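Shapes recur. One chain:

:::
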Amino acid sequence: MVTAQRRARPADRYARLGRAIAALNAQVMQGRDRTEVLERLCADARTLAAAASATAMLADSDRVLVVRAVAGRVATWQPGVRIPVDDTIAGTVLRERGPRATEPLSATLYRPPHRHEQALAAAGLRRVLYLPIPGYGSAAGVLGVAYRRGGAVTLDELRLLEPLAAVAGLVPADPTPDGRAGPDGRAGPAAAVDGSHDQLQALVARVIALTAATTCAVYLPSTGRTFAPLAVASTGPNSDGPIDPVLVPRLLAQRRPATLWRLPDGALLCVPLAVAGTVLGALCARWPAGAQPDRTERMLINLTAGEAAQLVDSGRRRAAGEEQVAAREREWLARELHDSVVQTLYGISLGAGAAGELLRTDTAQARESVAWIHETAVAGLTEMHGLIQRLRPDALSDNGLTAALGRLLETLHTLHGCRTSADLGPEPPVSPEVRQALYRIAQEAIANAAKHAHAGQVTVRLFVQDPYVVLEIVDNGQGFPPDADLRGRLGIRSMRARAEAVGGRLDVVSGPDRGTVVRAEVPVGA
């Protein structure tokens, strides 16, 4: 009876985990406030792990983690506390994207413990388990669970907490005034223009080179109703920009094509960045005392503002498209968590309850039930690893695109039993952004072949056909009519958007009972 009780406890915890994930999944799908969802998640992690405290720390930048939610506040685990990445164990987990435990906290480490770790030890905590919160291409944060008891981390603990960390990666960031969100829930001006910073910097540098202005900057919306300088050029050491950012909204509120202020120490010219009647920001330049812009300089400033507005608008459109793709992926993973993992855990809980009853009446059948529970748990764990791999493709950053594509085929064979083949060739000469895009295209095409086309054979080819790198995914599934309207197929739209975002194109060829060929072409060196 004692053995049966010991077996029932993990099964009961998995059943509670299933219910917790279902509730969190529902909150994500309903668009609940991120803090609310993360606080619920931390409370679930603390309860399931029988821990003293649990916290969700999200990456504010490459060098800082910010505590966003806590269940059981202790020491420096308080909302808003900033924890450096460079010299903390949590930072190591963020960089390496693998779980790590500290036990005991007071032990001598390979380096002196950081003050945050010292504070946890001083609060009576003996062990902390850190798990990476998956993001898109990199870790988005760290889930920390602290215990007042010692002991080694068990596989059961990891299996309970890894799914919660995965759910934390699904929670969308809080929206900003322009509808976008950064990793910490605040969109900075750099996020608003995506990859256009260098081009904007060249524009303001051109103003300094061709006019008598001493400082020039592009201002874009930051947090709340404030603005911040994104690109700044100056003839001297001053790099703060020509105007206090708090004055920019006042200038834009005047709705003038340009505003010239004559000041005691010079002149200030500000021009709105406007596209189709929408003001996106401002370009401002300052002249020294006794000088002001002449007609030619004012014309140059206006032309430069028009170029800057087009760059900002293009960047925002690209970012909006990427956010739509990311939102669809979050919805997909939320559905998968509910339809596969949650159902598996629910089945385990029912099987465990039945086994407990059978132990008193039919031990042989009880053993069969326990064996079924074990098989179901292993299958669920395999599915969870597959989902996490889709969310966080470690193989792509660690071993390159060809190895990552091979891993995708291995996962396909394991989960769906499809026959697979690959002709991948050497690693293609493309940027990390292109590798990521090609990987996601292959991922979507392979998933479609297995789940929708019911293919029994999938082949992936990757080769260079100058001047393009070509990715082909071929399946022998049921296909669809060549004249079918593809506009409503979100998966194909997503793949096409990814290819176009890196300067490439995507073609899909199919026919009823003739399988499907997905072909992506991206310029070499892109």
Remarks:
- The CA atoms of residues 218 and 283 lie 5 Å apart.
- The two ends are 64 Å apart (CA to CA).
